[in-house]
Protein 1
Amino acid sequence: MKWELVPGGDLALDLTLQSGQAFHWEKTPQGYWVGLIGEIPVRAREDGGRLFVNPGAEKIAAHYFALDHPLEEIYAAFPNDSQSRQALHACRGLRILRQPLWECLATFITSSMKQVAHIRAMSLALRAKFGTPVQGYPQPHVLARSDELSLRACGLGYRAKHLLAVARGVEEGCFDLEGWRTLNTADLRCALVGLPGVGVKVANCVLLFAYERLDAVPIDVWIGRVLLRMRGGRRGTASQLARYAHRRLGPYAGYVQQYLFHVARVSPKIAT
DNA sequence: CGCCAGGGTCTCG
DNA sequence: CGAGACCATGGC
């Protein structure tokens, strides 16, 4: 099997693909990952922090895995508390992906009140039922011509209505996901929150994982617990927690959040 | 069986 | 504005 080295280093591929950003990658018994970047089939493996992919996929992989993110600068901006430092130590090389807009938005619309394994199951079911021959994430126009019952058959439950409505809005041109790239983060968040089934949390996931807004902080139940501990047990409203996270976690708050999230989720019992 | 999950929306005070 | 009910599904 042929492999090409992708220039750039310091990538922890397992952590990156297991940290609840993208849900369709699969690790083979041979130890490499297979998946799709958009519609392009890609296999990838990591050795000593360096990324190797199938010939021809170097460019798209470098972009998707964000090998250009300045990790040392990001780490220098990490907050200096024990939780953040421990998370950094445990997750060094974990990168925030640059995902295609639609599939990121769609998968996180289906994510509400679901565990990571369930989100993966729904994503795979949608790809199998509606996807292209290579089972890329079904495009908006495909879902737009479907119906709520067919989406529910993929395990979406009440989320089916939201996904269908957003797919139809994108297809009709009401929701210009690509055009919204030029908006500043606050305006972009407002635009996303205007979509059915998209609240602040899902909007921040899409801001962070697809729109390259590395200061966006999705606050789910796990990060909520982390912030609760950071605040010494003091609770707060959603907007209070958001302000606190932004101030406390710094200019790359989204990166810090992802490291904290992964550590909390993988080893929930370890209290620091 | 009860509890929980990378929540959003609507209603009521 | 803030709290609570409700929404489906699957794993444990």
Protein 2
Amino acid sequence: MPDPMYRQIAEDLRQKIESGDLGHGDQLPTELELREQYDASRNTVRDAMKWLITRGLIETRPGQGTFVVGKIDPYVTILTGDPAKGGDEEGPVYVKGLRELGQGGQRMPTSSAPRVEIQKAGGAGAEELQVGSGTTVVSRHQQRYIDDTPWSLQTSFYPIALAAQGAGKLLEVDNINQGAVEYLRQEIGLKQAGYRDTITVRAPNTGEAAFFKLPDDGRVAVFEVRRTAFDDHGKPFRLTVSVYPTDRNQFAVDVGEVPPQPVTPEPKPSG
Amino acid sequence: MPDPMYRQIAEDLRQKIESGDLGHGDQLPTELELREQYDASRNTVRDAMKWLITRGLIETRPGQGTFVVGKIDPYVTILTGDPAKGGDEEGPVYVKGLRELGQGGQRMPTSSAPRVEIQKAGGAGAEELQVGSGTTVVSRHQQRYIDDTPWSLQTSFYPIALAAQGAGKLLEVDNINQGAVEYLRQEIGLKQAGYRDTITVRAPNTGEAAFFKLPDDGRVAVFEVRRTAFDDHGKPFRLTVSVYPTDRNQFAVDVGEVPPQPVTPEPKPSG
DNA sequence: GGGTATTTGTCCGTATGTATT
DNA sequence: AAATACATACGGACAAATACC
């Protein structure tokens, strides 16, 4: 038995897109035109559209039409940095296409002023800090941009004890210019000996979808990177949770000796 | 203006799920029952279902009903290993829940015999090897399992010159027991000085969806990890492309000194 | 194994609302 | 204001998968 009709229509359009017959940004025929081309009802054509939308191949714009999605030059974040520094907190970001900048395509992210909150460490967020439930932590939440486009949402958690020990800037609603890790080293001699990142993918919540301007049908997932930082006694003192849309970000991990070239050419989905 | 009706229905059901009113694996009312509860048409109820399905909250089973998705203990792959070894090719994998094994929750993946092909390095896959277009490469493709469940699809590319220089096993349809990286070191003195991983997320192709038994509506994306390995002259000699479903996998990256504990343990009574 | 009821999947038609040009 | 195009919502019909007797 053949596939359902909406799948056949979707596969036919997919083939047209991947063969280059329909290029990035091109407009598809309207739903009514497709209804005639494939001799199906408009609802069936729309089912095919939804199948293609889920796969990120097309997008619809009410009042305008349906379009092949444009290609995005992904941002590349290198997760392996100097353990004595923050890591991705102030690190550079590379752009794969490197069209706009002559060489290297390096960018610096900018951050909003942090929203600082004092919270109880419930089961909700900060198990990695290994403080008991009910202990007080400081959370510092920031919105991060590259070239004025939303790039990531980031929240760092610190035990309140650090502020009491002299790191008062943790409680201030200002960016810490030299970076929080360097500040903690200077101020109270806390050395970051290493960190562990865990990388997961999930659907965005409503706030994230709004900030990143993601379509509200939830088809674009987000990376969640949780960085637990340890001092030289192996004790965790910082948890940073960063969220990035998966459609315009990728990560790089360097182990051992790796030549300096910033990134490798793009991967391609195989048929 | 209020949200569309299908969104209101979806949000109401989402709240019931996230509040625990409906637990993992529980069955939802049938579409006809929901149609009466919300005084909507069956198609509108189904639109609400689709919204929840896209977000991974529920799943439908034809002939049975609609269910809250069960919780999955994710596999954790550590990307930062010994640069002189393969990395994740033979490395252990950790399971977060660690319920089934007493301690640590460590698992070893098993691999199918490789499918070995000789290919021209076209634009398709292996730009990272920095061989000219038209150069011949060996590809070794494997299916990898953990506890007999499909875990990843992996393809490694090597310049054909390595086989000519004495590493003949690269052309054989057998697993290389000691690992390809160790084999290349022993046989032709090729030392892996380091590697770079790039991590992206994309929709699965049909073969991947079939192997991983992913729903064919494409809502579950896959990780694509591309590992380029370099010798001690900084020359790439291996590209390994691994694909993992995002719904049951996560990655860890260790930088600097990180305490040994494999993953963040769930708070458990010591007994 | 067969038959039947239940439940979701596909497909159709139509009407009306909303966003854009 | 009008035309166009997609979004939402309704209704109905039949098919396919599953469970149960």
Protein 3
Amino acid sequence: MPELPEVETIKLGLSKLLPGKKVQKVTYDWPKSFPNSKADVDKFLIGAKVLRVKRRAKVLLIELDSKYSLVTHLKMTGQLVYVPYGHKLTADSLPAGRQGSRLTAEKKFGGGHPSDSLIGRLPDRSTRVITGFIGGSKLFFNDQRKFGWMRLVPTTEVPNIDFFKKVGPEPLAASFKARDFTKRLQKRPNSSVKAVLLDQTIIAGVGNIYADEALWGAKIHPSTVVNRLNGRSIYLLFEELQYVLKLSIEKGGSTDRNYVNHEGKKGSYMSFARVFRREGQTCPRCGATIIKTRVAGRGTHTCPNCQKESKK
DNA sequence: CACTTGACCTGTCCGC
DNA sequence: TGCGGACAGGTCAAGT
């Protein structure tokens, strides 16, 4: 769910908050969520100062003056939430309620914070890593499903992470033109256009939400095979993809179920979505009923009238 | 080689 | 009410 616009929103937020902050303490206990050794943490993270925050594809990069970077992929349910100094926290460490114990964060930390905001309830059962800064502020990496990860990587080695070696170009880069988009798509001539949009090695940052939204905008059925798309269709798809990504960044991203930004707040793109998660509702363009099917192994939302399936 | 499916996880929802 | 099963969907590994 965090796709390009969601990670970009977090990047913009954290860029205003983290640079200059010095790491004081780090708490983590789930190796897949944070695989680094304590020795590395002590050497390269504790005492390090944040230089800048960047994004590449769906990955967030926090560059440190120790020549290491904190690299985070939120996958499906990851969150990065910053809690400023002065906010009343109920505990300083990870809750212990996840191994068999059915303790909820609420029970463990003494029943209900007056504030209903996520910030007031952190850490919670999904908290995997807490990075504490001098001055008392904290960055929480929460991840309910544990698919995401945060890791400490030498900054010069970041481009050599397998994912970065293979990942495609940024769709919103000024240098990325329709011609480039066409060439990239045509590397997978026999795949469905939706599968290709979701393939991070073709184009970076597109996930299920914006794939469906852009395909609706371009009136293309998601299972259309790339080599059956004409030049005009591909151009339209390029324009629509950029449009939905930019609009969503403006709206602070999409909150389908889990996503929140650096302040623990939801994004509002979903109220602008035309098809995603709108099965049973009417198509804003033609009034037909939006349907949900399965394409490329994913839930897929289309207007059966605007997006005709091409006959083989 | 090109392409598709399953595994990784947990929480929620639906039907019986 | 409780329980099993389907489902959510980003990426990598394994399968066709």
Protein 4
Amino acid sequence: MAGADTSQRILDIAERLVQTRGFNGFSYADIARSLRVTKASLHYHFPAKAGLGKRLIERYEQNFLNALAAIDRGGGGARSKLDAYVAIYTAVLRNDRMCLCGMLAAEFATLPKPMREEMRRFFDENDRWLTVTLEHGRTTGELEFSGPALQVARTLVGLLEGAMMIARSYGEVGRFQAVAERALADLAA
Amino acid sequence: MAGADTSQRILDIAERLVQTRGFNGFSYADIARSLRVTKASLHYHFPAKAGLGKRLIERYEQNFLNALAAIDRGGGGARSKLDAYVAIYTAVLRNDRMCLCGMLAAEFATLPKPMREEMRRFFDENDRWLTVTLEHGRTTGELEFSGPALQVARTLVGLLEGAMMIARSYGEVGRFQAVAERALADLAA
DNA sequence: GTCTATAGGTGGATAGAC
DNA sequence: GTCTATCCACCTATAGAC
């Protein structure tokens, strides 16, 4: 399956490009250079850029969900789960990247509709996992917060995405870590 | 001064385009169409797109600082100042726009250096004003939070920018308002 | 200050040989 | 599956007439 392998490598390179430069900030020529093939070859695997973009989000979301499932299997408490959740973001930022979907959220107005829908699914899944985790933590008394867990979840996602974006502009991962840790500390009972 | 007026109208249109589509998501042709002039005319006022971009940030930052000064002149307490600060963001989002600099933060890697520096200045000024406001509120006992005010300031900016970006992708201003109000409520003594 | 015309480059995408 | 060659639309930017 040399074909499937090439498709994966294309996705790997495109993913990095979107996370660093945005969907409108890279071209098939960039991927071709990096993979040492011609642009035409890329179109064999992904006829249109919109399709490549949709696949990118699907794969990113799947990997993200797998990471969340791994956290749940880890069996720690709510706080340690949230720490692990933040660690995913931190690892991305250390790699000089933005969250794929955070990046696409900025470019939302210019994206083809299938990409928009897929991107929102990513945020919906994040809200869902965080809501469950937060509510469980509140039930066990490990966490303390008022109001609906969904609102705390959205606050967390918004903060992580925004702080990540700004921290990257300064090249300072610590800037992100400081606010993320503070946000989690505020949830401790 | 029809010339200066034209320059301002160009900036107005370009500003809207950057806030909705991003700096890499619009072209001189878009401005020309909207202003009903030719692309060549635009280059008389702004020879290069990078220069136009830098001017955009400078003007946006100046308007923002003026708004902050107006809030300070209003003479309310720390909490009402923070409410007014959030209201600036809400107004932008109601207009289906992102914060200009939040948008540029996403595109950071593709921006010319002068735009990067100007953009960071915007965030620095926001940090500064919020830090002063937060510290004053803590002194008077109106606000309550632990740790350096600068960290709370950066948490707020990160949250507002991130939540704004995501809320815009859903076309739901209320999504932004809910998390913003919650964040401010957490600061009340 | 605004226009026409155009340069020189890059964008995504396709046809058809190998 | 990958290549060469090419298309056409669009990009930023400039020259020079009006």
